[in-house]
Specification:
mainly alpha; binds fe (ii) ion; about 170 residues
């Protein structure tokens, strides 16, 4: 089983979350999906299955989106920074449930065919007792969010996620 130290080293931005209970919850969510899916490492897991051999891994994409969102939120100064950081770090946490590894290749899991990562990630956040606003950001960061009124932090994460995804598609 993966350790909390591994999660915190992999995602150093967890240390930027001021609310320590929230920071612990973010690390726990990653640990939970890794343990649940039997993932021993996050190395080499692609951030999307919609692009053939994307350059970025799930960890690199998650950190890039989080760091871009932090930069914008700093400039604006009217957003909840803990929500921005935790939302960035967890927006794709459900991907480990959406994915499976078959013969060394990462593919869509049977579970993932039923529930995409915004839904499973939001469900996990609620299960762990994380704030509803954080579950909202996870649920609404992708096209699933088009049916709800996104809070400002969710608007930010939605755009930062798509900036990274759309640029990756051009490569
Ligand atoms: Fe993403």
């Amino acid at each position: 089983m993966v350790t909390m130290e591994y999660i915190k080293e992999t995602f150093p931005e967890i240390g930027l979350i001021e609310n320590k209970e929230l920071a612990e919850g973010v690390a726990t969510a990653w640990k939970r999906v890794m343990d649940q899916g039997g993932w021993e490492t996050l190395d080499g897991i692609p951030f999307t299955l919609l692009i053939d051999n994307p350059e970025a891994t799930l960890v690199q994409h998650t950190r890039m989106v989080t760091k871009m969102a932090i930069a914008v939120a700093k400039e604006r100064n009217d957003l909840d920074m803990d929500l921005v950081v935790s939302g960035g770090l967890l927006h794709d946490v459900g991907k480990l449930l959406e994915y499976d590894r078959v013969d060394g290749k990462v593919v869509k899991s049977e579970f993932g065919k039923l529930l995409r990562h915004p839904v499973s990630g939001a469900g996990l956040a609620l299960e762990l007792g994380l704030p509803a606003k954080l579950a909202h950001i996870i649920a609404a960061h992708s096209k699933e969010g088009e049916m709800v009124k996104r809070i400002p932090e969710a608007i930010l994460l939605n755009h930062c996620d798509f900036i990274d995804f759309e640029i990756a598609k051009t490569k």
